[in-house]
Amino acid sequence: MPLKDKKVIALVENEFEDLELWYPVLRLQEDGAVVHLVGDEAKKTYQGKYGVPATSDYAFSDVNAAEYDAILVPGGWAPDKLRRYAEVIKLVQEMDEHRKPIGQICHAGWVLISAKILTGKKVTSTPGIKDDMKNAGATWIDDPVVVDGHLISSRRPPDLPAYMKAFCDVLANE
Length: 174
Description:
Rossmann fold, alpha/beta, seven-stranded mixed sheet, globular, Class_I_gatase-like
């Protein structure tokens, strides 16, 4: 199992894009990683855009970035809520500072924008936030997945296989 002993935070908030949370979580678990769902409250059940639930293991305030190897930010409308939590911004900034893999898909780029970590980076996202990404200092590329060092970004659910292959490769080589 190539990701045995790797620990990953998967952020969660209501209206996450169901596939963009669950496909990565299950894919990482298949490769042996431990994935913790982390929301504003521990043991809280959040609803995806299409009704698939996700119950958090921990609250943002319960986790320490130093104890994890990577972080995933799902898309949907959740990123607009996630970026309002100071603890989320701090987690993302600490992961970035230590060059740990940060995965973001679709609208998840909003969280990275609020964390102010995109200046000079190459990324992709849903085209709907392309201008936001560029205004944050990133070079936006319309590809299924873009890897710039420890940042792995993707556009939308049909790109999930390429996104998770790239994310798993970066995490395995960390």
